[in-house]
Design brief:
With 198 residues, the protein is α+β, with helices and mostly antiparallel strands. It has a single domain, classed as Class II aldolase/adducin N-terminal domain (L-fuculose-1-phosphate Aldolase), CATH 3.40.225. It is 35% helix and 19% strand. The chain has six helices and eight strands, in the order αβββαβαβαβαββα. Helix 2 packs parallel to helix 5 and helix 3 crosses helix 6. It is globular. It starts with a helix and ends in a 17-residue tail after the last helix. The mean pLDDT is 93.
Length: 198
């Protein structure tokens, strides 16, 4: 499990989807939660950077756990996820500042993600408010965006959550560049009008 944390953390950093000390990862095993340490460098994770704590109750590990642990716990309570990934992908964050959903233009993201909601909270980091917004939304979506902050993605394992995160950031870059070009977008997909309602 540690090797998977380390591999995904490194990929996130190298892809530019987190800063040196940003983002967090977690895995659920029964009633236990394994989550990256508060302030850990995901691109250079060491064994001591993965903290074990209770899924429902605090124990000695909670003092070192990521500040987003409240959000991760809520997601595990409300979904069937076994892994959660939180990142700060820049193109996705830029788009989140001006819209309530990100609707991809490219084929891959259209197929995999369809539509991704953008949620808004006043206290965007590690708050009960964020937990109360993100966890219910992830019952219906693989990934959601918190306006001005970043993404929360779920999966049965970390690599799956990483796939949704990477896919959304690529889609956001395509949307951003397409809009920047000023060119008229020609629709090529079937049933695109339905995307806004999913």
């Amino acid at each position: 499990m540690y090797r998977e944390f380390r591999r995904i953390g490194r990929d996130l950093f190298l892809a530019g989807l987190i800063t040196s000390h940003g983002g967090n990862l977690s895995v659920r095993l029964g009633d236990r939660l394994f989550i990256t340490r508060r302030g850990a460098m995901l691109g250079r994770l060491k064994r001591g950077d993965v903290i074990e704590t209770g899924l429902e109750e605090d124990d000695s590990g909670i003092a070192l756990a990521s500040s987003e642990v409240v959000v991760h716990r809520a997601i595990y309570r409300e979904t069937a996820a076994l892994a959660v990934l939180h990142a700060h992908p820049p193109y996705t964050v830029v788009l989140s500042l001006s819209r309530d959903a990100i609707v991809p233009l490219d084929s891959e993201a259209s197929y995999l993600l369809h539509r991704v909601p953008v949620l808004a909270a006043e206290k965007t980091i590690g708050s009960a408010e964020v937990a109360g917004l993100v966890a219910p939304a992830l019952r219906d979506y693989k990934i959601v965006v918190l306006r001005g902050h970043g993404t929360f993605a779920t999966g049965q394992f970390l690599e799956e959550a990483w796939q949704w995160t990477s896919c959304l950031e690529a889609a956001s870059m395509i949307v951003y560049l397409a809009e920047l070009s000023g060119e008229k977008i020609k629709e090529y997909r079937r049933g695109t009008a339905d995307y806004a309602h999913w």
